[in-house]
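Q: My collaborator sent me two sequences in one message, no labels, and asked for predicted structures for both. Can we handle them in order? The first one she listed is below.
A: Yes, handling them in the order given. First sequence, followed by its structure tokens:
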Amino acid sequence: MRKSISCSAPAKVILFGEHFVVGGQPALVTAVDRRAYVRCVERDEGILVRSGSSYIFRKNGRTVDYSSPADIVSLRPYSVMAETVLEDVGVEKGVEIVVESEIPRGAGLGSSAAVAVAGSKAILSLLNQEADLESVVRYAMKSEKIVHGRPSGIDIRVAASGGTILYSTPSDWRRLELGWSPRLIILDTGVRRPTGRVVRSVLSYARSEPYLFEELIQIYREVLSTSLEALNRGDLKTVGRCMDINHILLRALGVSSNVIERAIDFLRGLEVYGAKLTGAGLGGCVIAVMDEGRMDSALTHIRDMYNGSWLASTSCEGVRVERSGGA
């Protein structure tokens, strides 16, 4: 019987901040209750990564079989991460990686990071290696660099640590113990956005309009400070107003879109306390807060227009082992 380990890691939502990390400002990020599950199983040789009917098989550092060219792009990061772990540990056997995820891809919720973190934890555990958070993060970042080029590290960190964190850089972050963790409305617009292009456009804006960018940063600082105080005292209406202001700032950076604005207008018609885009922008998801007693009925109306939407718990558990045994 072959040894196997299953691990999972959560999706993330950026509550406040997004592109202001470029200006050296921290983002407020929380783990939410959809997860990616990864099962790793010993095999004699090579690295096989499977997700549904998609697969990629690599041997000796080369891709030798795959279900489609698109699957090479989407699954190769996890196989390369596994290769790196095996090489570092000095193990000559192979591994099979099976991915099942509840997190929509390309929606700004950290789907690839959750898979990478769960996979990193599972591979290290399968090989009886130290699977502390920093080791898990280090190997998961190798996967994310293939996916995103120069990732900020936000998605990886919150998928690993869980909870709610204030994040500036990979070495400058801290976990927050807030007095209250609200549920969020997550509205999925269904539009998938090119993260790299959006980030480049913000960087271009910051270089071409440095004084305006600095003014936006100053306003964001006040928004973040006010929102943290409101979260600690359970003041959801103020949190909502801060979301509205943060969204105006992001719109000024050019990362909103007609699709996002229509979604926010729709939510305002349901009398939410506030709403904003989350993630890179130009698509993906919108988050909102409202009176807890009205959330379930509001979700029914939201799903009539945006079927992939849900009510999310926040400050959820980070990466964890789900099951170990034989396969």
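Q: And the one she listed second?
A: Here it is, processed independently of the first:
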Amino acid sequence: NRVLIINSVNLHDNARYTCIGTNIAGELSNHIDLQIFVPPTIQRDPTVDSVNVIQNHHIALTCKA
């Protein structure tokens, strides 16, 4: 009867964990796969809030997510 507590979970904790119970009658194990999900972020240039372009010209807007 033990508990594994992971404080401040991060991507390095993404793994398969094994719980092993033993007594004089034998041994039993169970696997738990821990998957860490990270919310998406958007990287933007803080110096650019608006862009002007002349009609019929080309423009490329970049969004890094």
